[in-house]
């Protein structure tokens, strides 16, 4: 029996796989909605019938890529794609190289620290270490946060080409103008001083400090960030300025381990 699910578009000469395309469409749609979506909403958004969407969702749920919550009838992404991405050698190596430095720094400054890479218009947290104390302010491993809301994002934005930056800002024009304006100010400040320091856009009182991690070519591939909180009644308190200096040193250390001669804290004059 011939499998007709994969065909060749005679005009373009390209192979098509309609079933695979539908599955990927669902995953990409769910990735843009943190609350999950009902089957009917997915079908409407993708302009597909409910029956064909249901078959796809059944397979994706069975394979563990999608979860279903009976009480709300919503489908949502699981962490499986994130786990698969971590099997990819560059991400796995980046995490493994950075994690010991991150642990030492978190212990030394009594602050949480996380490692982020660019993921579309978001940052993706690929490694995270909590502060050693009881009171923790941290970002969940695997979390995706809009790039313009973060210090990490200002650094990762600088790694984009000028054309990519223009396209990102075009897509961001419908978002809150004050946040985008602040983001561009922090981006410009990073290019001048080699690190980013900005008040959190989501938690009052938190100051995000972020430094770039560079590979052997000097290109920025990730950002190392501390959401700094001013701790009270702490026996060994490390100030914001001291924490910043130690974070810059940590960025240099990890970048060196990645083979870079251009370190965190150096100005980005691209």
TrEMBL record:
SMART domains, sorted: HTH_ICLR
Stored PROSITE patterns: HTH_ICLR, ICLR_ED
IclR-ED domain boundaries: 80-260
Start and end residues of each HTH iclR-type domain: 17-79
Pfam assignment, any one: IclR_C
UniProt xrefs under InterPro entries: GAF-like_dom_sf, HTH_MetabolicPath_Reg, Tscrpt_reg_IclR_C, Tscrpt_reg_IclR_N, WH-like_DNA-bd_sf, WH_DNA-bd_sf
Keyword terms: DNA-binding, Transcription, Transcription regulation
Protein name: IclR family transcriptional regulator
